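Reviewers of the previous submission asked for a worked example of the structure-prediction workflow described in the proposal, so we include one complete record here. The input consisted solely of the amino acid sequence. No template or homolog information was supplied to the procedure at any stage.
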Amino acid sequence: MRAVILCGFVGLAGPGGCAALAPPPPSPSSPSAPPPAAPPFHGTAFLDPGIITADDPTALVDLTFVGQGPRAMFDRRTEAFGMVDAYLFIAQFGAAKTVEIQVNPEFSQAQAEAEARTYATAVGRLPAWAFRDLDTMWIHAGAFRFGGGNRNLLIHTAQGEEYAAGGYLEEVFLHEGTHTSIDSDHVAAAGWLAAQAADGAFISAYARDNPTTEDVAETMVPYLAQRFRAERLPAATVAAIQATIPNRLRYLDELGVTMEPLR
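From that input alone, the workflow returned the following structure tokens.
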């Protein structure tokens, strides 16, 4: 993965036993009804708040404060990296996966721990594959976009509170986790590009406007929703997903991504 890429969803963007996911070969298009001329959704991180909820289990096992130390952290408020004497926490997910959570010292230590626990708990509800390339999490104040990439998840807490209030916090992390653990192998894969061309449409306006950086992440949320959480969605939403991007859905079927939690 390129060293400095921060993909992020615009609000209302290995380890742990998850094997590397190799791109499947291109699949021929199958006959289907013509997809809608315009994307059916604006942004799929806000497709439905019920795809992952606070009632779903979390893989977070433990959170330990380990002190303060200098860390290079990206901050949307400056759109730059900066050295920060961050509060450091080690989060354990499942049996063996650990992630260092780096919290800006603009918070008190107690506040930092509360924020680290809140977001680690939510991240723990993601599928196991989302932990493949996740090594760190950055937490800052402010209402700014989340981000994925750099083996990291970027969080701004005021924005996180807005996502959580709408019920979309885990869905946004699912989008960003795709940037972190899936994009590097698939955004430019021949099979993905063939599926994209065969579909002839995009699932969201955000994917359409950013086809080389957001299409995989924008597809992942609706893919998992219609494949593993269809009972939580309106039938019309499932139908729109399946009619618009059948070849991309087939690509992800062949890839084998699931909602199986980290153990």
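Residues 15-53+181-255 form one domain. We consider this example representative of the routine output the project will generate in years two and three.
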